[in-house]
Here is the input.
Amino acid sequence: MTINYKPPANYLFSSGARKSMYIKESLYRNFCINGSIVIALCTLFFISNHAFSNIIDDIKADMLLNEAELLDAPVNAGWAKRANITMGGAPRGDATPSWWQPNDKYYKSSAYWHAITPWFIIYPGTMHNASNVRVKISEIKLYILKRSSNTWELVNTDDADPTWQFHQSYISSSTASQKVNKRIEPDGKISFKLNKGLNPIHGGIHKYEIYGPDVKAVYAQLTTELVLDDPDKRDDRVEAQLLVSVGADYYPDMNLRVRDFTAPHYWVPAVAASRFGLVKRDPRIHHVATISPPGPIKNNGSVLSDSLKIIPVTEFEANPPLIESELDLDTL
Here is the structure.
């Protein structure tokens, strides 16, 4: 026999019943909220780790082979094929390669150097056929890992956009002296356009003072974007093949210019330089780091051991600088 029982209406709204229902609803609500938080935190943790792993992969890739063949680049130049680490995290004269022999041998000694500047090079590839394009360069960031604290320090806290630029003589020496075509875009960022001679553009920001003995490693990044020169003309960005390398140079001190100490040379060996990476329609971050692998240029003849110019990539992964990724750019 089935007994059909329906509680009195006043029972359903009695204090005991209300309390029981309240407790059950609270537990359920807290479970849902806290469960959502846990799921959200786990998701964020997973995304964060995945994004960080991607950044590290990008950094390591940027220290390998160029992404395209450079137009009329010197055959024997290492940078024409790949990234390179020359002086690395060792700002001192005996970290320079054997082929760099300034007249003043003091600059080949173990004396430390105390200034640094980040730079970039815009270079056309052999398949570059676009004429209505510009390269936007922004967010230049230079970090130094300090030996004394094992912490990364952002060096350029004032300027993140280019402050100087000139043409290199590669490809067309007769047009290298022309003024660089530079303009400020609507978003305030700076862009550059190659001249008719397709001379590479070398630029950067000014020198910064450092304490040479405290430098353990160097990392730098910048952001590029391929934009139109004239929006009213045909969009030929699909025909563009422009590449960018980011790097840095040490100087013995803040007051010296290249010509003051490098003669008979006209340049100073780089800290390091990234591979030449393609500039794309979407913002892209290019990286350079004094890490191993890949490690320094082999057998460059420096007096200082190559092992003192780099840190292992595992150490970089365990203690990275505050680096920005394309994921961050997508959220801007």
